[in-house]
Amino acid sequence: MPTSLPITPGQAADYGSGSARTYIKASSVANIFIGLAVFLGGFVVFEPAPYELLLAAMLFCAFMLGMRIPAGILPVLIPVATFTLGGIISSFMIDDYQRGLIYSAVTFFLGLTTVFYAILIQNQMGRLRLIFRMYVLAAVATSILGILGYFGMPGFEMFTRYDRAQGAFADPNVYAPFLVPPILYLMYGVMNRSATMLPVRLGLLFVLLLGELLAGSRAGWGLTLASAGIFYILLLINEPKAQVRAKYILMGVAGLAVLIVGVIGALQVDAVWAIISQRAQVVQEYDGARLGRFARHAIGFELALSKPFGIGNLQFGVIYGEDEHNVYLRSLLTYGWIGFVSWLTIVLWPLIAGFKSLFRQRPWQVYFQVAYVAFLGHLMVAWVIDIDHWRHVYLLLGVIWGCILLERKWQKEVLKTRLSKAGRIAGTHPDSPRPAST
Q: CB-based burial of residue 281 (10 Å sphere; 0-12 exposed, 13-18 middle, 19+ buried)?
């Protein structure tokens, strides 16, 4: 499946209609598989999931067909490699080193998916729309499974856990954050897209919000509220027309009112009230207990100071009975000091490099803003949960880097146009040198 072609459709036309048709057909086939891969990201009940198998095949085909890795993506590829190297070194701190090697291999593969998505987006900006539409479909489908399971529909029990909706995931705490990017994307669609599709978008948004609520994930709830608030503020800041800003404010107030009324109404349902009353406490017993989550964090960071190579893959859970539930602590203990520095590079570099793009009017701005805000939110909740193997986190990272690469291409084209224009002006200036007469 070709993913990096040497010519664009417009350039292909210069070589003849046959080349143009070949490009379009190849691109269409590629897009089918890209969309399918994103959709399968919502169904990760077991590992390896169909998502990994399909993406592995796509990566293999892409490299065999000559996919080129642009220099602009090296700031993510290199730290992913060193992050993996740290995991490999840490694996040999325990007897069962094979477990660590497999875990590190999965880490590197997920890092490659970030690079892959970034290249696909750089090659064709239009793939952003495909990616987000398929992401929405995946989120809605997996949410419906979780909702049906939560309300006791026969045959759907496997889509719940601990009396919480988890969709087609192995953990409600992964499922709930997975829903946040499509929620933001649908928010934008409700406020800005055509009115004819408004009922559909509202319906899809309702399904996702209900699925989020029934997941009973405090991290998911907080991530949804924080991300929606930041995204809404960005929309207001970036909108130059006062009339549209006023529309955003009115819709924001109306949406908040509907949300409050909807939550109050949902609480009247015993099954919903049960999960809200149980999960609404900020600090659960297993968080603040003697060896609870927060106590383990303190123990883990102190331990990491004396273990530069880590303690081995998932060994913290073996010693203390529970995993770290903190990706920064995990990067220290599972990947060593080199892994910790690499992880910070992986997550902070794109946030810094792409910050200005949040405020630049570009065709891809909304996709970038959704991915950036959701990714930033994930980094915040990562203080209480491990996200180093969440597939959708690497997808978001790929979208961010893809948009960064698009911005660089945009800037190069702008500079090229300015230089060309300056050259034409210089050539017509009265004082410009004239060719010698013969």
A: exposed
Strand, helix or coil for residue 309: coil
Answer whether residue 216 is part of any domain: yes
Neighbouring C-alpha atoms within 13 Å toward the C-beta of 209: 20
Q: What is the pTM for the complete model shown?
A: 0.89
Query: Phi/psi of residue 40, each to 5°?
Result: -70, -15
Q: What is the token pair recorded at 356?
A: 């200005």
Would 245 be classed as within a structural domain? yes
State residue 190 phi and psi, 5-degree precision.
-60, -40
Q: Is 428 a domain residue?
A: no
Residue 421 lies in a domain: no
**Are 124 and 364 in contact, with CB atoms under 8 Å apart?**
no
Mapped onto helix, strand or coil, the DSSP state of residue 85 is helix
Range of the domain at 142: 9-415
Contacts of 315 (CB under 8 A, 6+ apart): 93, 94, 333, 334
How far is Cα 298 from Cα 380, in angstroms, rounded to an integer? 18
219-265 pLDDT tens trace? 999 999 999 999 999 999 999 999 999 999 999 999 889 888 888 88
Nearest Cα to 234, choosing from 365, 111, 77? 365
CA separation (Å) from 59 to 62, 151, 239, 417?
5, 39, 39, 35
Provide the domain count of the chain. Answer: 1
Closest CA to 137 of 206, 45, 42: 42
